[in-house]
Amino acid sequence: MEAKRGIALLVAAFVVSPLAIGLGVILLIAASDDDKGGGGGDFELSAGKLRVGKGYVPAQYAGLIEQAAASCDAGLPAAVLAAQLKAESNFNPDAMSYEYKKNADGKTIKVPLAKGIAQFIDGTWESSGIDGNHDDNRNVFDPEDAIPSQGNMMCKLLKTAKKHPGYSGSPIELALAGYNAGWGRVDEYKGVPPASFAKGQTYYYVRNIMADVARLTAPDTSGDPEVSGGWGLPVKGKLGTPYHQQGSAWSTGYHTGIDFEVPTGTPIHAIGPGKVVAAGLGGAYGNQVVIRHSDGKYSQYAHMSKVKVSIGDSVNGGQVIGRSGETGNAFGPHLHLEIRNGPEFGSDISPLPYMRTKGINI
Fold first, then answer.
1. Rg, C-alpha atoms of the chain
2. CA–CA separation, 48 and 50 (whole Å)
């Protein structure tokens, strides 16, 4: 499917997207106004979903975004949809983008391209737009139609992405890439297209959205009790590849974590107490576990040969969560450890300073 539409560019605030590739200069018209349009309905926001307010997700769209995410049975985070809308239009329901092209007389004319808060082009809206508020009027400028349509497209792409665990990138990243450039490009590159494709449009679209997900996610105030156990090293082993080492082996162009050189089957311990938010296949990471800690940071353990916890489990610091291996994109057995601001790829921070603040001697 040739995904969506063509996204506008306003200075550096928005990310160039889909069919804008090769279509010429795009210009976004209409300033953002957080007080316009869109009813949130009566969908109740839950803890740990969206951070609502000035500078975050406009309150009038939060319910629509939550509902669109909840309607997907493939595990689509509401904050991903919110970060997309911010990148697409800065939550502006009246957003319009244009392409400049020559007419039959050779004159340059401005032609409407993408429309509304989710920036659909006409062809994709015709095939994928839905009547979200059931008023018998599919309106691309109505957030009550556009946001459910965006969620529906992302849900379908996410389900497709989960059928390709060997592709480079998490399922969410693959879905975002498909939404931006078309799933055909994801198939072509067996993952998120690299920065060399279309001057990095899709690569940075995915990367910037994933980096914004953590910022738009509300703190989890559900009252989960802190589990016991202190902080310590995940394995006893020599440090290997350091954080941010550059090289062509990584899709980002640099290493996003630190490696521990240990043989296959070495027990891997949670570095601290927390709750498991991901467990299983993780694309290029192979078998992985991601743990959310009470301070809002996440630790990720990759290339496992065996996973011993499940999503939703509370774990103690030092608890065995799996065994090391070389699944995914790995050159020999080792443990790849990341510390992140959010649960997904693209929100990594330097692991060693964080671990040292927890009293881990490394």
1. 21
2. 7
Of 230, 226, 251, 256, the C-alpha closest to 241 is 256
pTM given for the model: 0.54
Starting from the edge strand earliest in sequence, which strands make up the sheet with 108-115, in order?
26-29, 96-102, 108-115, 120-121
- Tokens matching residue 138: 């599919």
Tell me the β-bridge partners of 268: 322
Is residue 68 within 8 Å of residue 151, measured between CB atoms? yes
The per-residue pLDDT for range 218-275, each reduced to its tens digit, is 765 444 444 445 789 999 889 988 888 887 767 777 889 999 999 999 999 999 999 9
User: Mean of the pLDDT values across residues 300-321?
Assistant: 93
Mean local confidence (pLDDT), 180-204: 94
Q: Measured between alpha carbons, how far is 87 from 358 in angstroms, rounded to an integer?
A: 35
Task: State the Cα–Cα distance between residues 128 and 360, nearest whole angstrom.
Answer: 51
Of the candidates 194, 170, 141, which has an alpha carbon nearest to the alpha carbon of residue 343?
170
CA dihedral (179, 184, 189, 191) positive or negative: positive
* 158: amino acid identity, one letter: L
Structure token pair of residue 148: 């459910």
276 and 309 Cβ atoms separated by less than 8 Å: yes
* CB 243 within 8 Å of CB 351: yes
Which DSSP string do the residues of 194-254 spell out, in sequence order?
A: PTTGGGGHHHHHHHHHHHHHTTTSPP--S-PPPPP-----SSS-EE-SPTT-B-TTSTTSB
- What's the CA gap between 131 and 144, in Å, rounded? 8
What percentage of the chain reaches a pLDDT higher than 90?
Answer: 48
**Which pLDDT band, with edges at 50, 70 and 90, does 102 fall under?**
confident
Closest by alpha carbon to 102, among 24, 195, 13, 184? 24
